[in-house]
């Protein structure tokens, strides 16, 4: 973690309720993946080019649903009002001022229309995206999509990695299963099947399928991103099902403790997609150098969760603004040191695995889709080879087919080690992009009364929910309106 972000983290920890801090900061199981998300970046290095830079560098990126002034967006995390009374409103204002996107979580403690209004109060053209867990009751999903559309959201981010809730040891130890009085997952209020005027639980269900995604995508004109993809075969399937972009993410280490670090999975997914849609990376980004490494491996941009929560807890809107400015400044500095004029000059041949020489991770393959602004200086190509220090074998999965398909198995830099604190996780009281509520599931989760034998219900008002923080999502009764 860069020194500026570390200082904000320490200030946040000092002011947060320890239970809420652990909610934001924690991960699933023994928190191996939580630590690996960050540690995997430390195993990679950049091999700069010289005598080809520029005094003015173009950091902008065009994506389906927004143009970003810098390739960093605010990843979805839950329950920002646990960190600061202004909650998601403050986060939205800071993101808009920085010229980037807030992905507003389904388990937000501020309703999505109010989040968009806060962002547009700073910049009338500000883009807010809405993160969505498809619900077993598709009428509920449809209501949430319509709310996001009416609020003025510019894209949907559909979380796919939460068939059940992750098991968070820290939340269980604290007994953190419910939000404090006065806080709720406001997007879940007044929905079909819930008590009038109250909220219903966010549900996780293993029955959610590609067919659910197809129906959701057909129901809206908004761009649809699929979040939580790690296997290249799923990336190929996602493109075939018409998604507009893919987010490589392990839910900030909050869902399954056996998966690779997000950055290890990135190269194989980029190769499988073969430039057909843009790919974002979410998980473990703790400085501008990490942003540069992710872009060099083929990401169009990165999502940042926990650091934003630390900034919010430490200093409200100004703290979030500070996080985004630090990342912008650090990234611009690293880009200059690598001889870059724009984001397109960060190519895979610049990435090496520490301790293995400087041969580079690879130079063949498809380029980054959807990233605007950069020039590949001196004709540099954006290789799309196998993962950091790995060689991907085999094509991707049985049903994977299709162009550019896949290097099965995410390959990545030498991974390992538990190292707990991690990248985008979030547990009680922690702040992180993909954080999810205590006791229930990880960041993208939540749910009450999920359907099906395996479905888990995250205690509506409680911590086990949402992308980065939802604690069991809030059950404040929900009517049957789709208001």
Automatic annotation (TrEMBL):
Low complexity: bias regions: 377-388, 404-466, 473-483
Pfam family, any one: FMN_dh
GO molecular function terms noted in the UniProt entry: FMN binding; oxidoreductase activity
Organism, scientific name: Saccharothrix syringae (Nocardiopsis syringae)
Keyword Magnesium on entry: no
Protein name: Alpha-hydroxy-acid oxidizing protein
PROSITE patterns from the UniProt entry: FMN_HYDROXY_ACID_DH_1 (PS00557), FMN_HYDROXY_ACID_DH_2 (PS51349)
CC terms in the record's Gene Ontology section: cytoplasm
Region Disordered, residue ranges: 367-391, 404-483
UniProt key word Lyase: no
Assigned keywords, A-Z: Flavoprotein, FMN, Oxidoreductase
Similarity remark: Belongs to the FMN-dependent alpha-hydroxy acid dehydrogenase family.
């Amino acid at each position: 973690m860069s020194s500026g972000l570390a200082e904000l983290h320490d200030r946040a920890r000092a002011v947060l309720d320890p239970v809420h801090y652990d909610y934001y900061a924690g991960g699933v199981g023994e928190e191996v993946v939580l630590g690996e998300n960050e540690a995997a970046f430390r195993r990679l290095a950049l091999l700069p080019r010289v005598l080809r830079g520029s005094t003015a560098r173009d950091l902008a990126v065009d994506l389906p649903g927004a143009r970003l002034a810098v390739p960093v967006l605010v990843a979805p995390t839950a329950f920002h009002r646990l960190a600061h009374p202004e909650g998601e409103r403050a986060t939205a204002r800071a993101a808009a001022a920085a010229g980037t996107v807030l992905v507003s979580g389904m388990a937000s403690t501020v309703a999505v229309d109010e989040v968009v209004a806060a962002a547009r109060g700073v910049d009338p053209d500000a883009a807010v995206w809405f993160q969505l867990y498809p619900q077993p009751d598709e009428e509920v999903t449809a209501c949430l999509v319509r709310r996001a559309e009416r609020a003025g959201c510019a894209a949907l981010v559909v979380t796919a990695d939460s068939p059940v809730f992750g098991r968070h040891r820290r939340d269980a130890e604290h007994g953190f299963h419910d939000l404090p009085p006065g806080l709720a997952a406001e997007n879940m209020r007044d929905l079909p099947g819930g008590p009038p005027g109250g909220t219903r639980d966010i549900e996780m269900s293993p029955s959610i399928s590609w067919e659910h995604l197809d129906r959701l995508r057909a129901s809206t004109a908004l761009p649809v991103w699929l979040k939580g993809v790690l296997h290249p075969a799923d990336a190929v399937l996602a493109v075939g099902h018409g998604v507009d972009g893919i987010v490589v993410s392990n839910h900030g280490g909050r869902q399954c403790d056996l998966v690779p670090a997000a950055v290890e999975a990135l190269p194989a997914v980029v190769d499988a997609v073969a430039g057909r849609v843009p790919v974002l990376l979410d998980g473990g980004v703790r400085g501008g150098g990490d942003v540069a490494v992710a872009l060099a491996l083929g990401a169009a941009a990165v999502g940042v969760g926990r650091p934003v929560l630390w900034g919010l807890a430490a200093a409200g809107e100004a703290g979030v603004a500070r996080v985004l400015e630090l990342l912008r400044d650090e990234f611009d500095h690293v880009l200059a040191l690598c001889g870059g004029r724009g984001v397109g000059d960060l190519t895979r041949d610049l990435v090496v695995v520490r301790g293995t020489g400087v041969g580079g991770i690879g130079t063949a393959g498809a380029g980054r889709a959807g990233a605007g602004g950069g020039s590949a200086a001196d004709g540099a190509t954006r290789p799309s080879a196998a993962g950091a220090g790995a060689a991907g074998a085999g094509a991707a999965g049985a049903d994977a087919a299709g162009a550019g398909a896949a290097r099965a198995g995410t390959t990545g830099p030498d991974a390992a080690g538990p190292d707990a604190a991690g990248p985008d996780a979030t547990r009680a009281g922690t702040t992180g992009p993909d954080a999810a509520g205590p006791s229930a599931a990880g960041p993208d989760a939540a749910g009450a009364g999920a359907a099906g034998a395996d479905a888990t219900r995250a205690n509506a008002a409680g911590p086990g929910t949402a992308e980065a923080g939802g604690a069991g999502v809030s059950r404040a009764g929900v009517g049957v309106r789709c208001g």
